[in-house]
């Protein structure tokens, strides 16, 4: 890291602290040449390999943007989307890989989106997983019902109905 004051290529770390979210480290540095002090923030790099082969840095905003379209008209807030994007990033980082392809990001989005809003999940999954028939939707809906039978009773299946 070059000193921002005199461009000396060397600096000495005076203090290091982990950020509140635990994803970066703030280092206070001092230049041995001019004595200037400055801060750096270090994060572990996480790169995305796009289908075209282009590599770019991971972006929570891109995750939010992709999911936002599926959430249009649903009771999902920007704060919900930010939490979802953070959850996705944390899941990806836990794999230990510094490069991940876009397909893996899509898979990482599915579970937290399903937990957030099932209709948005179906919309996202229908595009991401290329649903091309009613059977694809039915299979996804049936899986949602299996995963949460208490939330998905069909009309006439309510066991608590008086008769």
UniProtKB/TrEMBL annotation:
Kindly state which keywords UniProt assigns to this record, in alphabetical order: ATP-binding, DNA-binding, Metal-binding, Nucleotide-binding, Repressor, Transcription, Transcription regulation, Zinc, Zinc-finger
Q: Where are the zinc fingers (unnamed)?
A: 3-34
Any Pfam family the entry gives:
ATP-cone
Q: Where is the ATP-cone domain?
A: 46-136
Protein purpose: Negatively regulates transcription of bacterial ribonucleotide reductase nrd genes and operons by binding to NrdR-boxes.
Family the UniProt entry places it in: Belongs to the NrdR family.
Q: What is this protein called?
A: Transcriptional repressor NrdR
Q: Which organism is it from?
A: Microbacterium aquimaris
